[in-house]
Specification:
The protein has 173 residues and is α+β, with helices and mostly antiparallel strands. Helix content is 43%, strand content 16%. The model has no long low-confidence stretch (mean pLDDT 92).
Length: 173
């Protein structure tokens, strides 16, 4: 399956949020079935580490909802419940310090990795996790602009649409 999403390449937590997007047909959700899960796992190089089955899909949807709650200012309880399903075990090997991710129930690995990634993003500069400012867009992005003022997930789509709408509105008036 070709990845149908209009915006990919964000950090793992935001890429998980972007499994829902708007199209001319309305809200789309990549994670409605195992084929969509398989597509998302492939896009994030997780195919070898996770089973593409219904248990993994359900766990990933729960993790996505937990991440949505946090980034929209809600409770962190569900995110913490996802994080409780795994841990990072630090060891010292001959080659130096090494971190091992341990998630006993493999269906939780992709969701746990996304939740852990969200913590990394939240530890960075404040206010960099953003939802696209276009009124009909539900996509998320990590603002890497120098001054943190990026507003659109993509200037070529949502940004240009907003500019064109303002231009046409000004001409009408």
């Amino acid at each position: 399956m070709r990845d149908p999403r209009p915006h990919v390449g964000e950090p793992l937590a935001l890429d998980l949020l972007n499994t829902r997007w708007m199209s001319v047909d309305g809200l789309q959700d990549l994670l409605t079935d195992v084929a969509g899960l398989r597509c998302w796992l492939a896009a994030n190089d997780l195919v070898e580490r996770c089973a593409a089955d219904e248990k993994t899909r359900a766990a990933l949807v729960r993790a996505r909802e937990a991440i949505v709650q946090v980034v929209t200012g809600g409770s962190a309880d569900e995110l913490n419940a996802v994080l409780d399903r795994g841990r990072i075990r630090r060891t010292l090997a001959d080659s130096g310090p090494h971190d091992d991710v341990e998630v006993p129930r493999s269906e939780w690995l992709p969701g746990w990795l996304a939740a852990d990634n969200l913590l990394e993003l939240l530890a960075g500069p404040a206010g960099r996790i953003k939802q696209c400012a276009h009124e009909h867009c539900v996509l998320w992005f990590y603002d890497t602009s120098k001054n943190g003022t990026r507003r659109w997930h993509s200037m070529t789509t949502c940004g240009n649409r907003a500019k064109a709408a303002r231009h046409y509105a000004a001409k009408r008036d």
